């Protein structure tokens, strides 16, 4: 089983408008609600690909009940950890040209007892897991070392780990030696304290992050694909040109497809190709939506993976 953790889930409200323009009105064309959070998104993609997965998440308030309702309707196996405060609502506004604004709440504050309960649920679920994906932001009240602790626990149980986070949680999590870490360009810039502007910068950043503790690094670069830093060297994955409609969530699709591929065939280069294919295919879809396996396979056939000399 592939286990995901979303300690800071959300109601994702996606609003599609005719155009986004500064200091001018926009007209809403559609509004959609879905259960969100990086781990939930990744589990949903893995489930849609036919993978065996379960999503651990916190839930509180009316918004938490709504998330549970949405997830149970999807057929995804979930494990809910009740909390006192209501979970957050995130808003994504996107137009037909691909311009996107993402507005995220910080999330509810968790008590020490609630944090401990989440850890215990994950510990128990690791007994039947081959992978643990710890994804997304940490809400108030959760120690920045929380992901690092879970990665250490999973490694002791011989469970592979993937870290998809930002800020201090990313930095401390990498030091715990996850199997793979999947930052995007902005997250890598914040981690390293420098701008990444050129191909040389991307390659150096991926290798530097790997030396910080991760076994493998997949640095997501949006429409430019990704750089993979592996034990035997660097690879670049170059996707075909597509018309991107909404890039929000493409990184979650990359994360999910990478682990789904590794679960079927432990080949990091092929997994990199699948990850870039899923992210690229998802970016072509309107709103915050994720590509199917068939849509991903269509792009997979056109992704070029080449070694860096």
Task: Pick out its properties.
309 residues; alpha/beta; 10-stranded mixed beta sheet; globular
Structure, briefly:
With 309 residues, the chain is α/β, with parallel strands linked by helices.
How would you summarize the topology of this molecule?
Elements: E1 2-6, E2 10-17, E3 28-36, H1 38-48, E4 53-59, H2 61-74, E5 77-82, E6 88-95, E7 100-103, H3 112-125, E8 131-135, H4 146-156, E9 160-164, H5 167-175, E10 180-181, H6 185-192, H7 199-211, E11 216-220, E12 226-230, E13 233-238, H8 250-264, H9 268-283, H10 293-300, E14 304-307
Parallel strand pairs: 1-4, 1-8, 2-6, 4-5, 8-9, 9-10, 10-11
Antiparallel strand pairs: 2-3, 6-7, 11-12, 12-13, 13-14
Helix pairs in contact: 1-8, 4-5, 6-7, 8-9, 9-10
């Amino acid at each position: 089983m592939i286990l995901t953790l979303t300690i800071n889930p959300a109601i994702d409200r996606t609003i599609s408008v005719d155009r986004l323009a500064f200091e001018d009105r926009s007209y809403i064309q559609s509004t959609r609600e879905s259960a969100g959070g990086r781990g939930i998104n990744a589990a949903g993609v893995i489930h849609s690909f036919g993978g065996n997965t379960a999503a651990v998440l916190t839930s509180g308030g009316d918004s938490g009940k709504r998330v549970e309702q949405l997830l149970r309707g999807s057929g995804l196996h979930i494990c809910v950890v009740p909390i006192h405060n209501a979970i957050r609502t995130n808003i994504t506004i996107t137009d037909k040209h691909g311009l996107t604004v993402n507005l995220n709440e910080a999330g509810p504050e968790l008590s020490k007892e609630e944090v401990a309960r989440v850890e215990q649920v994950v510990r128990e679920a690791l007994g039947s897991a081959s992978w643990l994906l710890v994804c997304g932001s940490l809400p108030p009240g959760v120690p920045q070392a929380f992901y690092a602790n879970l990665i250490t626990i999973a490694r002791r149980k011989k469970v592979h780990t993937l870290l998809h986070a930002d800020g201090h949680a990313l930095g401390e999590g990498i030091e715990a030696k996850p199997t793979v870490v999947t930052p995007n360009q902005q997250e890598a810039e914040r981690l390293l304290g420098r701008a990444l502007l050129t191909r040389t910068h991307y390659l150096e950043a991926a290798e530097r992050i790997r030396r910080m503790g991760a076994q493998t690094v997949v640095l997501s670069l949006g429409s430019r694909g990704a750089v993979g830093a592996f034990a035997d060297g660097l690879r670049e994955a170059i996707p075909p040109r597509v018309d991107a409609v909404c890039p929000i969530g493409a990184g979650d699709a990359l994360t999910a497809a990478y682990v789904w591929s590794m679960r079927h065939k432990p080949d990091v280069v092929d997994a990199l190709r699948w990850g870039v294919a899923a992210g690229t295919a998802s970016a072509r879809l309107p709103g915050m939506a994720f590509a199917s396996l068939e849509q991903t396979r269509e792009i997979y056939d056109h992704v070029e993976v080449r070694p860096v000399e």
